[in-house]
DNA sequence: CCTTGATCTCAACTTAAGTTGAGATATTAA
DNA sequence: TTAATATCTCAACTTAAGTTGAGATCAAGG
């Protein structure tokens, strides 16, 4: 009797998360939840995949708020098709490409810095705070999908 | 009259940070501070570089706690030499290399996933929660230098 | 001397992403 | 039917990295 409707505990087990996290995602509107008339949440089987997606996206540094936005492209009504997921995955791959090339750039700069005799030269990236903030700080911060824009403690503004 | 001792405001200006942040770093023991007998903090000029280092390290995803540990290798007593900084930078470069290769791997997996017909196959990385958590979640989390080990809300334990 | 502007301390607040606990109700297996 | 699980809600707590504000003191220029 394998239905397409699963309990919150099942979702948690299948995704390796805590029940409280699933509740949290549901309350935040990241995953669609049904309610039994006694108040218990239940989920469509496809929600497992949605949660997996959330986890992967998180591991790439996305905030839940951003993930929610990205997932708007998934159909709320019907179960997402292979094509739906494909689009999202492709987005990730190009995101990864960007990240990789940013890291390569950072590495090149850092390498240059090692050889430059920093302590005496004013032109050094690391030594020059303006540049450092511009090239490493802000850039890399964005690179890691760091702080949100509304509230930025430690924002290295230039 | 260029001394080697600078005020907290100067450090903040030179590094593009807030005074409160410098105070915070000093109190946390990340940068060495002197005190005038009236209680005002003052810093050696080389602290500018230390702060820049902190900013770069942060942008790479390091926690202040980790940065503090890394910086233990810098001499507290004397001003760090070029060689001291070189060692730290080299560490970063190899860290970048690791990150880059992890991202490459992730990309390869994701690419494979796109073509695999996920919705029907159980072998898919994204679909299989255990694998997803292992390959993407935990791995990528560490990759981004994410959560600390003591307290892990949302730790995708397997 | 006096007024800015810079610092000081210390406590409270911010965001994100959940977790933990209390007290209550549901569901399920024996 | 009863005991053991599973869920429910809701509020309070956690960490990190600072920020903000209040009230007080310091330092420097005119």
Question: Which labels suit this protein?
Answer:
homodimer, 158 residues, mainly alpha, Multidrug-efflux Transporter Regulator, Chain: A, Domain 2, 6 helices, 3 strands, elongated, DNA-binding
CATH domain class of the domain at 5-80 in chain A: Mainly Alpha
The total of helices of chain A stands at: 6
Largest sheet, spatial ordering of strands of chain A: 1-3-2
CATH architect. name of the domain at 5-80 in chain A: Orthogonal Bundle
Distance between the termini of chain A: 61 Å
Mean pLDDT of chain A: 70
Structural class of the secondary elements of chain A?
Answer: mainly alpha
Return the CATH topology of the domain at 5-80 in chain A: Multidrug-efflux Transporter Regulator, Chain: A, Domain 2
Strand content of chain A: 5-15%
Q: How can the largest sheet of chain A be summarized?
A: 3 strands, antiparallel
Radius of gyration of chain A: 21 Å
Identify the biggest protein-protein contact and residues per side: A-B, 57 and 57 residues
The helix/strand order of chain A is EHHEEHHHH
Tally of strands of chain A: 3
Can you tell me the overall shape of chain A? elongated
The low-confidence parts of chain A are 119-123, 127-158
Give the oligomeric state. homodimer
Helix fraction of chain A by DSSP (H/I, runs of at least 4): 55-70%
């Amino acid at each position: 009797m394998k239905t397409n409707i699963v309990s919150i505990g099942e979702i948690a087990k299948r995704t390796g998360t805590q029940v409280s996290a699933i509740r949290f995602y549901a309350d935040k509107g990241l995953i669609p939840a049904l309610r039994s008339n006694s108040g218990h949440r239940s989920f469509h089987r496809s929600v497992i995949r949605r949660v997996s997606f959330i986890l992967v996206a998180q591991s790439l540094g996305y905030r839940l708020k951003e993930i929610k936005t990205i997932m708007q492209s998934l159909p709320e009504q019907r179960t997402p098709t292979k094509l739906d997921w494909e689009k999202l995955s492709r987005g990730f791959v190009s995101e990864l490409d960007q990240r990789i090339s940013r890291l390569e750039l950072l590495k090149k700069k850092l390498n240059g810095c090692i050889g430059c005799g920093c302590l005496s030269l004013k032109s050094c990236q690391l030594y020059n705070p303006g540049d450092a903030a511009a090239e490493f700080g802000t850039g890399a911060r964005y690179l890691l999908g760091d702080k949100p824009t509304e509230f930025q403690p430690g924002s290295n503004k230039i």
